[in-house]
Amino acid sequence: MYPDQFRYSYIFSDARYAFRTQDFSGETGASLLKCEPFQQIHECDALIFLKQVHGTNGVAIGSRDEAKRFTVFSTHADYAMTHVPRVALGVITADCVPLLFYDSRNRVVAAAHGGWRGTVAGIGGIVIDHMKREYGTHPADLEVRIGPSAGPCCYEVGDEVLVHVRRYSWGHQVISGRIFDLPGFHHRYLSECGVLQGKIQMEDHCCTICNKAYCSVRRQSGTLDRQFSLVMLSR
Description:
The protein is of the alpha+beta class. Helix content is 18%, strand content 25%. It has five helices and 13 strands. It has helices spanning 64-69, 116-120, 123-135, 159-165, 182-192, and strands at 2-4, 8-12, 46-48, 58-61, 79-82, 87-93, 97-103, 108-114, 142-146, 175-176, 179-180, 200-201, 227-233.
């Protein structure tokens, strides 16, 4: 994982570490760390993954013991958050957007999965609102990293997506014909929610559809392979 001044650590993996969720049925947040491809994650006590359902519900992990007992890929939700150090929160993607949050004032992290349904429903803002209620987070204290996903070069969508994007006053700015700028939507939406422009990081983003280093449902005709993204408080 990549430490950010030892405050928190994060990683956006690629297809070299691809896996299928059904291979880990019954594993817990502690036991999953002994499984490939997660053995390279060090200084971590538990690893949390959810059963992502393209929605906007999430969970808060309140203790290290809870995290260690947590049954991975079973809880239906699309984001998790915690104030507990050494608990890594993960999302899996293969064209959807991974969003990693860090509250520098209250020392809280969150990880969210942004499929198109969650995206247009405002999952970024929903995570921030939950962090406000749970931990007192203020958007100006957040750093958010937008990871690899379908990009504005390749992501063609249908009317069922476009109609929702156009409901935003600025939606036309992230649409070109039928091409939807998925990461650009999140960048603009997070800014509208109060996250400072300079704290929305996109240097880790690239298009998973045209970059063969990543798993892509679009390019690989519905593959079940997924890459993972993680965020963790370092101490």
